[in-house]
Queue: 3 jobs
Job 1
Amino acid sequence: MRPMSADTHATDNRLTVVVAAFNEAESLPVLQPRLAAVLDDVAATHGLDCRVVYVDDGSTDATWSVLQALAAGDRRIALLRLSRNFGKELALTAGLDHVDQGAALILDADGQDPPELIPRFVEQWRCGYDDVFGTRIEREGEGWLKRGSAHAFYRVIGRLSKTPIPADTGDFRLLSPRALAALGRLRERHRFMKGLFGWVGFNRVAVPYHREPRVAGTSKFSYWRLWNLALEAITSFSTAPLRLATYLGLLTAMVAFGYGVWVVVKALAFGDPVQGWPTMMAVILFLGGVQLIALGLIGEYLGRLYDESKQRPLYLIDTWRPASGVSSGQV
Ligand code: UDP
Ligand code: MG
């Protein structure tokens, strides 16, 4: 867990790039040279001590050996290997927890967030912004269904959540030392990172960019995983669905009351011939369905509460190899 000493993140002339990688053996050798060139440039223009932390999120391919080879060739690289696949959000959390000085920048391993933009992020940080986030103007190499569902998702969560979550914004961002320290204090298990960044606040600015296709490999996020991520986002950052269930209940009760009055009046005026089995079935099935949905909703929240109450560590570390370093201090 992150050390909470008063001088944490005190030095702000360090920039650590955090990359979560899950089965990225093909992409990493393409990414690292690009990243290294950019970091050389940033180090020269801004006088920053640049580092990289690669987090191997329990990969089952050659990612770890590829990372070891890369680290052997560059003293700025630190390696972190998790005990199994914990998912991107927790892998990033693990990586960020291991940045104990300066700012952090989050980058995807697949080159979809171009490292060449890092200098623009750093400039904004140097201008005093705490949360510099990349906003996608365009997503190349992704089908209309993915783009459409992502578009809809950001609009829905934007309406439901009180926490500001900028639309079309991924995890590509730079966090200033104080934003990073603040994020380190949010230890919840169900982590929708974009929401957590939004919750932290401070001075925020967007850097628009074109999202490129992957350099190699395939996306790790199937539609099913994206759907689960969306559920996670909504239940972690909004209780609106619970309120919706209440309103739906109220509305149904009101309609049922009106209908009840009408049935009684009709029976008084015209007698009560027995009929209406189809209507009764329709109403019972409809109400049964609505009740099950409401129960399911409560269950979603309850399940998360249960996970939270277990107080397990967020992730477990297999290996931590600090960077051998280029200047003072250790990563
Ligand atoms: N990733 C990870 N753990 C996972 C899944 C993905 O660390 O369980 C990493 C992956 O290696 C990549 C980033 O998260 O660096 C984004 O994944 P991907 O490119 O598959 O997602 P997409 O860009 O398609 O949304
Ligand atoms: Mg990707």
Job 2
Amino acid sequence: MRIEKYRIEEHNQAGMAAQQRAFEYLSGEIKNVPEILQQLIAFQVGIPSWALGTGGTRFGRFPGGGEPRNLEEKIEDIGLIHQLNQSSGAISLHIPWDIPSNPAHIKAMAAQHGLRFDAMNSNTFQDQPGQKWSYKFGSLQHVNKDIRKQAIEHNIEVIRHGIELGSDALTVWLSDGSCFPGQLNFRHAFQNTLEGLQEIYAALPDHWKIFVEYKAAEPNFYSTTVGDWGQSLLYANKLGPKAYTLVDLGHHLPNANIEQIVALLLMEGKLGGFHFNDSKYGDDDLTVGSIKPYQLFLIFNELVEGMDARGMNHTTDLGWMIDASHNVKDPLEDLLQSVEAIMITYAQALLVDRKKLLAAQQNNDVVTAQEILQQAFRTDVRSLVAAARIQAGGALNPLALYRAEKVREHLIRERGAKTMATGL
Ligand code: PSV
Ligand code: MN
């Protein structure tokens, strides 16, 4: 579904006086407004193809109506989100959940919606119908060479799909690990995994990157073979210059200092990708910024500082993606909320007075350093983010317009009340 352009303009017009008042006030309070607006307009967050349906847990799944029934409909949904917020201009596919049967058509369709193909995701954490070998005891780590080979071949096939779509990165998340002490020889599991990743790395086109995603636990609950950023970095360093670590916010042990992790990975030139979500207990997949917004700000602060220190392009030099899907919300509304939270936090990180912060650090002025960060975090930048969105052709309030246009009702009429999108 597309929203008529004039409906966006009418919606923007209706709220423009209040927006202008807030924006003018804020413009008087902060520096570099035109530059920040340009950075916000440029910044794009990828949407995964598996986040468009209602997620579930092992206790059940309660799909909402009008879920996309195929990849084309998923692209339409992301296109709609992007039309509203102008910040979701990329799609990330999970194979085999979303195999593009006609890549040229899919690529053209995505381009019509202003979308490009972000990192491709392989899946060796589930067995697929007709698959010869089972991943019950792991994939690249497996003691059986045939099973490792099957997992390697799958990843190479995912690269091939990605090439056809114009993607330039492969994200490998392995659920490999063990559930009980003694189950696994840790060294053998690491070596097998490394050898498999090396074969996959060798199949990457020159301009491609591989992201090695880590996760502390789940589905294995005793050990995970790529369990933390140290292990991921070991693999990335051993693989070579096209290999990077991917940080998913939900994949750490409680209270991990994620801002410090991203700072050091950036320092090493080894941070490649980023998955946004929020959580209270584990890999909860909740809406970005809904539980720990200050932590998200501190992470963004390090991302901006670390990327600037290396002269990196904020938009293109890291793969940014939302990785969330949960049980009770309309997924499109949730994604709109997540992208908004990301844009707000990015804007706040751009406000940090870096010269003053460095001076405070040099003087061991702890209070001033904290004040500088909190000053930025406590600034209400919503009118700034909205101004960037309007300039780019989006809606003043994407969520309000989505509801006013009754998008979900329309999708239910078009697709049916009982559809279920592929994913977890
Ligand atoms: C695993 O928990 C993960 O974060 C990986 O990125 C997967 O590809 C994704 O979630 C999909 O479930
Ligand atoms: Mn992830």
Job 3
Amino acid sequence: SVDFDIQRVRADFPLLSRTVHGKPLVYFDNANTSQKPAQVIEAVDRHYREHNANVARAVHQLGEEATAAYEGARDKLAAFIHAGSRNEVVLTSGTTQSMNLVAYSYALPRLQPGDAIVTTVMEHHANIVPWQLVAARSGAIVKAAPIDQRGELIVEKFFELLTPEVKLACVAHVSNVLGTVNPVREIARECRRRGIPLLVDGSQAMPHRPVDVQALGCDFYAITGHKMLAPTGTGALWAKREHLQSMPPFFGGGEMIREVRFDGTTFAEPPHKFEAGTPNIAGFAGVGAAIDYIQALGFEAIRAWEHELLSYATERLRDIPGLRIFGEAADKEPVISFLIEGAQATDVATLLDLEGVAVRSGHHCAHPLMQFYGVPATLRASLAFYNTREEVDAFIAALLKVRKLLM
Ligand code: PMP
């Protein structure tokens, strides 16, 4: 067993000690959004109690403190993902906004009729729909690389799609439904060889593994804060400096300008050029605290514990007759999609909830992946480092009870 003081870790997460329908909560919906440690909650609370002001506008003390928290989060994020510079980190409301920024500001001006954007069948809608929207405006098309039954990307097929008319390639680092870890380094190498920029959706990777955007060799990396202990409405886009330099602003307004004149407005340098308006300052105070928390715990300990839980939960699920697991990639993060033969996913999730167990049911914002497997929905148990073997046991016991009810 892994040396990990799980009880001490759990004590940091106030919500984990609550009950649901009279039962102790088992929170296995971490891929949807993570719970928050007291350190993050307190950072947000402290911001509003002690430092609240707007950023980058005021010379007074509070304005400087708020700016320090906001810009401090950028510094921490930049170091966390090994960005070449803090100026390569655009703060956003989450991956969805990061993707749309790339779609409208990077892709759209470059797309001609007949061009293409390549993505994969396993993507979240956030890594499909923005590309479809800009493709529709420009006469370009979106192509999706296939996966195999185990839920692994067929990398050679992805490469076959990388023809000269492709202006952008997009792939998830980790699938939110299958847990599959895609070979991003290898994909980035091939994209570079063909001169095609690569965007990586890092939403589901950041909570589970150290990320080094320079070592990965991609061009864009999209980040969501709320899945990695930080408040909702926080995220980032990392992009190579030359890309940010070449991109026109997406949102216009305050904070993103150099000088506004009716005969021609000039813009701030990246990243501020892309950060119009008042941002989620308190949220980013929380992002800073979330990164501090993860780094204090360390990915070595986090990964060891999460993978012990993943193996244990997978083993226990495999013992249940008629249970089918979706996603058996050799390299996967602690996300398990499954169905029980003869039972609707939503019925199972609803009954599990009555047992205090929170899992997600549905299409997980991945319709094409559901179409690939020929199912309307799956159940998804997604684990975090603050989960326990006892919670896995409670989940399995609840599942067996529900299965009996529905059979
Ligand atoms: N991509 C993936 C792989 C995700 O799991 C999610 C969140 N479910 C998103 C993108 C979108 O993130 P957000 O809703 O935080 O913008």
